[in-house]
Amino acid sequence: MQRVNTIDISNVLQLEKTLSTLLNKMISSKLDLENWLKEQSKVIWDIEEQVRSHYIAFQCNTDDEEIKDTFEHDQQFVKPLLKRYQNLLDNKYLESPFRMELDSNVYGLLDTKIKNAQKLFCEENIELEIK
């Protein structure tokens, strides 16, 4: 049974709108932050799952121009956009006053992962990865 993706990553404007909506969502409590993290996880997973499936399709069908175009679209537009928004989402999480209220036994590893990703992020690297 094939999974139905809820986000159309072929439409960059719609993809950016989805990510922007997530970024601009109001967080006014610990519960809001937990729900926002779950929603973020689902959105990012959906996008990355499609990118991975396009990569696999391209590796299996290197002569198919449509599959190649889809793969190249992901590399040139989707992945850079996702990386930029992932950094913005990480910053939103790190700046949340409710972050310290989260149970460290549940969210401790995620917190460390996000802090490390934020330290390593460099906007200039995104353009280098496209080339």
From TrEMBL:
SUPFAM superfamilies: Metalloproteases ('zincins'), catalytic domain
Highest rank taxon of the organism: Bacteria
Protein name: Oligoendopeptidase F
